[in-house]
């Protein structure tokens, strides 16, 4: 196990470096082709040569390689790696610390995804298990049909309808009924509120979880169906174990491997943010940060954020692999 | 039995969490504005990066800084005329070259430091120092000694040497409350510039730690920034010791930051959580037809001009004024604006915003009215459009603008039969600066201070073939110089109007539309006036009733 983990960590670091290099090359090419972000800083104003040069220097874009298309700009990249190694993640184009941006945005995104995950697990485990247990029955068909319908309903439609049609009257009603100084109005606030992050993230999280739950329901159902037909389940039943015990210990546990994978992947994906949900509900999260950073050719911010994301992803994947071993003793890594 | 116990425990656990959630009231969690304080709830865009006056150049930080700092002058909300505020007096010499600024006594910053001549000199020198790369740097180019403070660059635009000087030689602190400013050339409108954010004073403490000051400004205005969770919300509370009189009655302002600007706050506005907002396009019509809302609405034409320019530095039919006239008269400004963006713009027929700044008059452009007949006649006179060629219309990457310019292209094609192609250039600013266009392209100008000069001076390219449009007029530039040296501001404004007349005659660019400012406000608000210049609600004028 130890050797396996060491190998995976090394692989992870390699992947990380590769991802960073790739991103660095992409943003560099973007700057070389799109011209200089420093020029955009002045907008419609006519900037003199020396003003432009000073701004380039301020943004760390003064390396001449940014003007030569096709030059990989390895100098600034190596410099940046050195800074990362010292724990300095640099600043964005306007001098704000990347670590500060991430420290503000990541918790919001994680809050959102804690809610999403709980929604998934609740819906997926309950509906998926019921469907698997009553295979072929009306409830099974009903659940499968529902999951297809959910798939057909894009999250942004759900959110726009919720904001304008549901949240506004509910929020007003809650304020009148419970008073402005109570929790219910915050649950139905049409936008995120930084002072009440948990209360205002619950509903968007549930809606986003709902919108993404279809695949999860089907995954749980398929996993359990497979288990129901397994030899170990037949054996357990023939030993006279209670059905509840069989389901919980032999079916659910054994079919949890793909579920854990899905949860792990979701978590990693979550850090990348849910651009649409965050944008619509005005949640300042990783999705929006990354989206804007890429749009503005903000090399420092893109690299800083993605490096952190990639690092977290690698860690999560390793954790998932270890969880496999715990869930299923047959999985051995030696 | 064991299972039941687990379930009961779980339920009890959930209930306990729920109780803890509801036990404390939400306002205990900070945010301010609930302990009998009257808070104005408004919005800014999420990309606000700095509150350092010398580095602020966007609608958002300018509107925040307007209540956090006081400038030497402020502008009349109706006429945009400047009047002295922190300044006791601002007097030019006979040539409009040496200006003596006297500051009112006993003013302080929010940290107790004096607001004196030194505070202004300190701020201006810091911003004028080109090595700092600040946004408002270019404002100071009119003051003597500016050039010595800029870095030197080689042909590739790399810095070869830093600016030699650290202080503007034209800035002299005569005594504690007197500042003498020597300009590089006469300029009658200098006092008008002084209300702009770039000219605000800064405290010594601010210069010692510029990074901290960019997020926690030390102002001299009626409000003090108390809490800025960057990209989420910004709160400013009334500064108790504010010595001057332009301060509103409410206690605090909270700006919620929205990722996609103003319209994303509309749902919060309708839910009663925001005091100022404007609906997204899909909701505009509904809001307009809501009798309850329409009484709480203000609008006025904005002062930003979107206009068309030509690549006068390349050969083409556009070198002929008749061709440019033809294009201008072929554009159905009214029709395009009515059909796009819910009419949130005003057709432009002048180069200076009418009624928004001194010297701005409507109708200075005689060829800005839609007239297909005259347009075709002018095109014939210009010799027509070359067969098989397409008119290229270039612009930056902006969805809303692409819509407008597609409509302009269609209008031209329909009336004149000139086929066009849109060239969406993500590198627009650089291409334009390097004279890389061939055909027609979009331009936009948002003025810095309310004077008609500000709409005209950037046409002074200095030599034939230079500038964004390759346009040069000796007569025009002489007129600008004459206006700058005029003995009074009124005279100066009149001479600038004459310069606009020259522009209208030679017609290098085509005015298209003025921006448009509008906002809905909540029942709590009264006296909501839009700044004729920036279009932002003037926060110092707003009255908020409690509740």
UniProtKB/TrEMBL annotation, chain A:
<feature type="domain" description="ABC transmembrane type-1">
    <location>
        <begin position="106"/>
        <end position="324"/>
    </location>
</feature>
<feature type="transmembrane region" description="Helical">
    <location>
        <begin position="143"/>
        <end position="165"/>
    </location>
</feature>
<feature type="transmembrane region" description="Helical">
    <location>
        <begin position="259"/>
        <end position="281"/>
    </location>
</feature>
<feature type="transmembrane region" description="Helical">
    <location>
        <begin position="198"/>
        <end position="220"/>
    </location>
</feature>
<protein>
    <submittedName>
        <fullName>Peptide/nickel transport system permease protein/oligopeptide transport system permease protein</fullName>
    </submittedName>
</protein>
<keyword id="KW-0813">Transport</keyword>
<dbReference type="Pfam" id="PF00528">
    <property type="entry name" value="BPD_transp_1"/>
</dbReference>
<feature type="transmembrane region" description="Helical">
    <location>
        <begin position="301"/>
        <end position="327"/>
    </location>
</feature>
<feature type="transmembrane region" description="Helical">
    <location>
        <begin position="112"/>
        <end position="131"/>
    </location>
</feature>
<keyword id="KW-1003">Cell membrane</keyword>
<dbReference type="GO" id="GO:0055085">
    <property type="term" value="P:transmembrane transport"/>
</dbReference>
<keyword id="KW-0812">Transmembrane</keyword>
<dbReference type="GO" id="GO:0005886">
    <property type="term" value="C:plasma membrane"/>
</dbReference>
<keyword id="KW-1133">Transmembrane helix</keyword>
<keyword id="KW-0472">Membrane</keyword>
<feature type="transmembrane region" description="Helical">
    <location>
        <begin position="12"/>
        <end position="33"/>
    </location>
</feature>
<dbReference type="InterPro" id="IPR000515">
    <property type="entry name" value="MetI-like"/>
</dbReference>
<dbReference type="InterPro" id="IPR035906">
    <property type="entry name" value="MetI-like_sf"/>
</dbReference>
<comment type="similarity">
    <text>Belongs to the binding-protein-dependent transport system permease family.</text>
</comment>
Automatic annotation (TrEMBL), chain B:
<dbReference type="Pfam" id="PF00496">
    <property type="entry name" value="SBP_bac_5"/>
</dbReference>
<dbReference type="InterPro" id="IPR000914">
    <property type="entry name" value="SBP_5_dom"/>
</dbReference>
<feature type="signal peptide">
    <location>
        <begin position="1"/>
        <end position="23"/>
    </location>
</feature>
<dbReference type="GO" id="GO:0042597">
    <property type="term" value="C:periplasmic space"/>
</dbReference>
<keyword id="KW-0732">Signal</keyword>
<dbReference type="InterPro" id="IPR039424">
    <property type="entry name" value="SBP_5"/>
</dbReference>
<protein>
    <submittedName>
        <fullName>Peptide/nickel transport system substrate-binding protein/oligopeptide transport system substrate-binding protein</fullName>
    </submittedName>
</protein>
<dbReference type="GO" id="GO:0043190">
    <property type="term" value="C:ATP-binding cassette (ABC) transporter complex"/>
</dbReference>
<dbReference type="GO" id="GO:0015833">
    <property type="term" value="P:peptide transport"/>
</dbReference>
<feature type="domain" description="Solute-binding protein family 5">
    <location>
        <begin position="82"/>
        <end position="463"/>
    </location>
</feature>
<dbReference type="GO" id="GO:1904680">
    <property type="term" value="F:peptide transmembrane transporter activity"/>
</dbReference>
<dbReference type="InterPro" id="IPR030678">
    <property type="entry name" value="Peptide/Ni-bd"/>
</dbReference>
């Amino acid at each position: 196990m130890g050797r396996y983990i060491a190998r995976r960590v090394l692989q992870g670091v390699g992947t990380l470096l590769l991802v960073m290099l790739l991103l660095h090359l992409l943003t560099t090419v973007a700057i070389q082709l799109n011209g200089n972000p420093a020029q955009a800083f002045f907008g419609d104003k006519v900037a003199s040569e020396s003003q432009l040069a000073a701004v380039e220097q301020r943004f760390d874009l003064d390396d001449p390689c940014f003007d030569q298309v096709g030059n990989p700009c390895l100098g600034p990249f190596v410099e940046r790696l050195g800074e990362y190694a010292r724990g300095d993640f640099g600043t964005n184009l306007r001098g704000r610390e990347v670590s500060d941006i991430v420290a503000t945005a990541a918790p919001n995104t994680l809050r959102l995804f804690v809610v999403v995950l709980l929604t998934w697990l609740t819906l997926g485990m309950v509906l998926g298990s019921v469907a698997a247990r009553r295979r072929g029955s009306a409830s099974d068909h009903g659940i499968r049909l529902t999951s297809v319908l959910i798939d057909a309903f894009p999250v942004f439609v759900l959110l726009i309808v919720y904001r304008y049609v549901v949240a506004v009257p509910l929020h007003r009603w809650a304020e009148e009924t419970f008073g402005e100084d109570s929790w219910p109005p915050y649950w139905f606030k049409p936008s995120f509120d930084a002072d009440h992050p948990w209360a205002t993230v619950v509903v968007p999280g549930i809606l986003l979880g709902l919108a993404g739950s279809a695949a999860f329901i089907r995954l749980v159902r398929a996993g359990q169906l497979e288990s129901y037909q397994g030899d170990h389940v037949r054996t357990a039943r023939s030993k006279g174990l209670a059905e509840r015990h069989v389901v919980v210990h032999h079916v659910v546990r054994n079919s949890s491997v793909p579920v854990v994978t899905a949860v792990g992947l979701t978590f990693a994906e979550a850090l990348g943010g849910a651009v649409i949900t965050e944008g619509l509900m005005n949640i300042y999260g990783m999705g929006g940060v990354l989206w804007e950073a890429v749009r503005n050719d903000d090399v420092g911010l893109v690299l800083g954020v993605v490096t952190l994301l990639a690092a977290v992803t690698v860690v999560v994947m390793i954790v998932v692999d270890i969880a496999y071993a715990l869930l299923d003793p047959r999985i051995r890594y030696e | 039995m064991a299972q039941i116990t687990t379930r009961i425990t779980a339920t009890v656990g959930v209930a306990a969490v729920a109780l803890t959630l509801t036990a404390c009231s939400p306002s205990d969690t900070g945010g301010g504005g609930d302990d009998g304080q009257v808070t104005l709830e408004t919005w800014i865009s999420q990309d606000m990066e700095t509150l350092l006056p010398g580095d602020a150049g966007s609608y958002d930080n300018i509107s925040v800084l307007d209540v956090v700092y006081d400038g030497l002058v402020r502008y009349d909300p109706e006429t945009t005329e400047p009047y002295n505020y922190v300044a006791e007096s601002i007097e030019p010499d006979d040539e409009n070259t040496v200006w003596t600024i006297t500051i009112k006594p006993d003013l302080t910053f929010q940290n107790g430091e004096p607001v004196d001549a030194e505070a202004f000199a300190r701020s201006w020198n810091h911003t004028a120092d080109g090595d700092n790369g600040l946004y408002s740097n270019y404002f100071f180019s009119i003051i003597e000694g500016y050039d010595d403070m800029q870095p030197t660059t080689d042909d590739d635009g790399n810095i070869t040497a830093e600016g030699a000087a650290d202080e503007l030689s034209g800035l002299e602190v005569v005594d504690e409350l007197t500042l003498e400013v020597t300009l590089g050339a006469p300029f009658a409108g200098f006092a008008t510039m002084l209300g702009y954010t770039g000219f605000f004073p800064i405290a010594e403490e601010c210069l010692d730690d510029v990074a901290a000051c960019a997020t926690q400004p030390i102002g001299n205005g009626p409000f003090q920034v108390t809490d800025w969770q960057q990209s989420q919300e910004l709160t400013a509370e009334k500064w108790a010791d504010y010595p001057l009189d332009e301060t509103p009655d409410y206690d605090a302002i909270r700006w919620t930051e929205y990722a996609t600007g103003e319209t994303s706050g509309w749902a919060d506005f309708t839910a009663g959580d925001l005091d100022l907002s404007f609906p997204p396009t899909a909701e505009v019509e509904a809001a307009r037809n809501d009798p309850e809302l329409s009484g709480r609405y203000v609008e006025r034409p904005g002062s930003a001009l979107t206009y068309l320019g030509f690549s006068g530095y390349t050969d083409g039919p556009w070198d002929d004024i008749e061709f440019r006239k033809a294009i201008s008269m072929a554009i159905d400004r009214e029709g395009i604006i009515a059909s796009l963006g819910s009419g949130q713009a005003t057709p432009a027929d002048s180069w200076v915003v009418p009624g928004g700044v001194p010297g701005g008059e409507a109708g200075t452009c005689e060829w800005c009215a839609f007239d297909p007949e005259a347009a075709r006649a002018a095109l014939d006179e210009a010799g027509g459009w070359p067969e098989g060629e397409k008119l290229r219309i270039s612009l930056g990457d902006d969805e809303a603008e692409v819509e407008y310019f597609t409509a302009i292209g269609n209008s031209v094609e329909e009336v004149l039969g000139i086929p066009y192609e849109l060239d969406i250039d993500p590198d627009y600013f650089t291409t334009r600066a390097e004279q890389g266009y061939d055909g027609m392209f979009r331009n936009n100008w948002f003025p810095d201070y309310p004077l008609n000069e500000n709409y005209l001076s950037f046409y002074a390219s200095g030599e034939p073939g230079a500038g964004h449009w390759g346009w040069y007029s000796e007569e025009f530039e002489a007129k600008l110089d004459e206006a700058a040296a005029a003995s009074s501001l009124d005279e100066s404004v009149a001479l600038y109007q004459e310069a606009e007349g020259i522009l209208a005659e030679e017609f290098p660019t085509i005015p298209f539309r003025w921006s448009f400012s509008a906002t809905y406000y909540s029942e709590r608000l009264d006296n909501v006036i839009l700044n004729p210049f920036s279009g932002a609600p003037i926060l110092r004028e707003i009255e908020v009733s409690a509740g």
